[in-house]
Amino acid sequence: SSDVCSSDLEAAVLLITHDLGVVATLCARVLVMHDGRLVEDAPVERIFVAPQHPATAALIRALPRLTVAP
């Protein structure tokens, strides 16, 4: 897990992506940038429950949704 990696090795990983699905799987904390500026910094759980910036909300809306055909 990412917690084991960072605590055992005293290291961090910088992941740059637009894919919040990957972020949800790998990250504990998220920093969102928009137009070269930091617009949000929060634990990954809060980002998905209560995004504070429109750019974060747009990234969440861009995630693929699974739907069941009737």
Q: What does this 3D model show about the protein?
A:
- The chain has 70 residues and is α+β, with helices and mostly antiparallel strands.
- The protein contains 4 helices and 2 strands.
- The chain has helices at 2-9, 20-26, 44-49, 54-61, and strands at residues 29-34, 37-43.
- Strands 1-2 form a two-stranded antiparallel ribbon.
- A hairpin with a 2-residue loop joins strand 1 and strand 2 (37-43).
- The chain is globular.
- The N and C termini lie far apart (38 Å).
Descriptive keywords:
19% strand
Brief summary of the model shown:
With 70 residues, the protein is an alpha+beta fold. It is built from 4 helices and 2 strands, in the order H-H-E-E-H-H.
End-to-end separation: 38 Å
The number of distinct β-strands equals 2
Q: Spell out the helices and strands N to C.
A: HHEEHH
Q: Describe the biggest sheet? A: 2 strands, antiparallel
Structural class: alpha+beta
- Strand order across the largest sheet: 1-2
Poorly predicted ranges: none
| Helix count, DSSP H or I runs of 4 or more residues | 4
Hey, roughly how much beta strand do the residues contain?
15-25%
- The level of helicity is 40-55%
Write down the Rg: 14 Å
| Outline type | globular
Mean pLDDT across every amino acid position:
85
What order do the helices and strands come in, and which of them pair?
Blueprint lengths: L1 H8 L10 H7 L2 E6 L2 E7 H6 L4 H8 L9
Antiparallel strand pairs: 1-2
